[in-house]
Amino acid sequence: MTFFLKKMMRSIKKFKVQFIAAFLMSLLSVMVFSGLEGAWYGMKYEFDRFIDSSELSDEWVSALYFTQDDIDAIKCIKGVDELSLRTRITAMVENDANKTSYISLDSYNDNNEVSGVIVERGMAYDSGIEDALWLDSKYAECNGLDIGDSIEISYKETALELKIVGLVLSSEKTYYVGSQDFYSPDYEMFGYGLVGISVKEKLGIMYDGNMVDIKGWDSEVKNSVKDILQDRFISYYNRDTQPEISKMFNQIGNLKRLSVMFSVLFILLAILSINTTIKRLIDSQSSDVSVLKALGYSNGTLMWYFALYGLFISVLGTLAGYLLSFPFSNMIIKTQKAVFTLPEWSVKHTATVFVLIICIIILCVLTAFLASGKRLQGLPEEHKNENTKRNGRIFIERFASLWNKTDFGFRWSMRDAAGHKTRLIMGVISVCGSIMLLMASFGTPDAVTAMTNRAYDEEFTYSYKIKLEQGVTLDEAEKLQNEYEGQLMEIVPAYTYVNDEKDDAESYLVTVFSDGEYVSLKDTEGSPLDKEGIYVTEGIAEELELNVGDTVYLSPSLNNDYFKFTVAGFIHSSMPQSFYVSSNEWEKSDIGFMPSYLLAGEINDTDKLELDSRVSQIVTSSQQRNNLEDFKNVLNGVFSLMRVMAILLVMIVLYNLSTLSFMERTNVYNTFRVLGFRFSELRKLASLENILILITGMLIGIPAGFKFLSVYCNTFSTDSLKIYPDISGKSIIVVLLIVIICTLITTVMLSWKIRKIDMIEALKARRQ
Fold first, then answer.
1. Is residue 310 pLDDT above 90, yes or no?
2. C-alpha to C-alpha distance for 522 and 652, rounded to whole angstroms
């Protein structure tokens, strides 16, 4: 055994390039999978701990207000174990720089254990303390606030000064954007907090509560609560539909799927690299094999000897990959911290990583074992010289007129490639895989940019989106509309079902718009939304399997009846995913139009608008653009890692293949030199295979890249946002240039090797 180990180490030193390539592919396979898993499972682990420690609710119901009879009735619903009543409002804060921000404030009546908060620093929550505020720690950090500071909040026409007594984190605010007008958190503009009962009373809120948190299992709340609350019902959410929680679950699933998609490609190439390396190793040691067999070593012993190579490479590669996965995981986690809020962040792995490592080792050993078995057949004498592969006619040779017009170099390269199909397939897969990864990494930011431009240049052309105070009447809203020459809009959640399946009703947003110029949406046929009926974005249409002419039933908030609408068309729009209907069509169904927004163009005096009692919040289209740009920048962290992985993939595999090709062709190159071929001609011959691999990989990789980009964008789409695949021509050119440059670099390296050939020594080796 010692003899074989020493011989293996000498062989590894001699063929170090091939072993390094196989080692790196094993390393990358484990590093990518383990790194992504360490991130997503670490997030899941810490999120589960956060949920458990804060007793996160299972369901949430909001209404205009709750009575004691409502609470008693909800407690009697099957599956409800515990509930908590609280009051939620949104207060405005203006800092010293005259910049407006908003805080969502909760006040618990009694039980604050359900969906409680984690107090990071300061006092524990006590609803009896007057003028006290327990503030979101991220909002406090971004606005330079700390325990002991005082801030002035305003709600409607009442202002109140509160003292910060604690900094908190809430598990139901893990992904907190503060407004449905934004898609990425802005901790400087939006925050949350807890206040006591006295603060609620001083702000003029006299009802007991407008939100109920419910703990239970498989309850029937969703199907029962609307009948209990009647026209006071606003919305129902559970953990799967509550955006501030479900986004976290979705992201964990996204990273989990990415870990599988990436790893399959790397593992496949790792196995192929080891297979090719072992075959070449055995062919190069044919004389040694002959001697060993003549000394009495059996084929089985030699097969296990060569299997040691697979074991050695895979163990070292997978171990190094696992160790390097920790900094890789931390890099991914760093990108997620900008979007999600958790008390702790850690890297965690499941047993799957270790199963994967064992599987890679077994596959590598088995690959080496089987590859050597095919090379060790026959008598010892047959292994004294290297096997010369003779190929039959290739397919293109059947077209003699075309084949005879090609030059010698092309014909020789095609025949040689046909004799080394595994090497060719590996190269094509690596180029194809790299293009797929690069197109996804460049295409997804392009898709977000295209989505942003489409939304705010074509679909919605307002400059200001003004949120109206709750309770503003239609007459008051229309007066404001006339003052600013705007367009009114109502966004309301509605229970929705199709095909008379009322028990399967789910909540979706409905956007009702009045006549105006700022909602410029068109259906998929390019027509404006002026037909009778209701329009629906494609994301919801796919989910509900809707067709034009289908009937949908909607029961909007503050209404207990279901109203019938006919689907008039579909909208190719990313955000928000919603049903769209004109105010005239809405009112035809005897539903009151209660505007919640005013869309307006340029406004000269925004200070006056902010002081208007009818206005709750002002958002500009530029703020929304910037927010989506932040969303893209957060995703760019993962995309940058993908680009690096793609470049490494194509460089490692192509360089390994070029080196193998060079070793196999050394004697052929020397024969050509003896026949009078110049180095430039040999370089051309050596380049033809890489060019063939590049062209084939590009032809397959570009359409596969579009498909991969579509799948990738779909993983980042949510219930409220659908990202359509979109990649610019500039990005495609950059992708192809990267792959071409990588190919050229490996070709140049191969040219250097050819120039360094010692022709005399090589020919001597040929004669031995």
1. no
2. 48
Structure tokens at 293: 């067999």
Pairing of strands 80-94, 211-216: antiparallel
With a CB cutoff of 8 Å and minimum separation 6, the contacts of 747 are 658, 686, 687, 690
What sign has the CA pseudo-torsion 13, 19, 21, 26? negative
CB 538 within 8 A of CB 722: yes
292 Cβ neighbours under 8 A, 6+ residues apart: 302
**Phi/psi zone of residue 265: left (φ > 0), alpha (ψ -120 to 50 degrees), beta?**
alpha
**DSSP states of 193-222 as a string?**
EEE-HHHHHHTT--SS-SEEEEEESS-SHH
Alpha-carbon gap, residue 583 to 474, rounded angstroms:
12
Phi first, then psi: give them for residue 260, nearest 5 degrees.
-75, -45
Residue 368: half-sphere exposure toward Cβ, Cα within 13 Å: 26
Q: Which residues contact 305 (CB under 8 A, 6 or more apart)?
A: 4, 7, 8, 372
Position 22, amino acid: A
- Give me the pLDDT at residue 94, please: 83
As separate numbers, helices (DSSP H) first and strands (DSSP E) second, the chain gives 21, 19
Q: Quote the CA–CA distance of 706 and 721 in Å, as a whole number.
A: 20
Phi, psi torsion values for 582, nearest 5 degrees: -70, 155
Domain ranges of the chain: 1-53+247-387, 57-238, 420-458+625-768, 464-601
Confidence of residue 113 (pLDDT cuts 50, 70, 90): low
What does each C-alpha distance from 19 to 24, 130, 657, 742 come to in angstroms? Answer: 8, 71, 12, 20
Pairing of strands 506-513, 579-582: parallel
Question: CA 57 to CA 118: how far, in whole Å?
Answer: 14
Share of the chain above pLDDT 90, in %: 39
- Helix/strand/coil for 727: coil
Mean pLDDT in residue range 674-684: 75
The two structure tokens encoding residue 288: 């040694």
Q: How far apart are CA 734 and CA 542, in angstroms?
A: 33
Q: Bridge-partner residues for 155, per DSSP?
A: 158
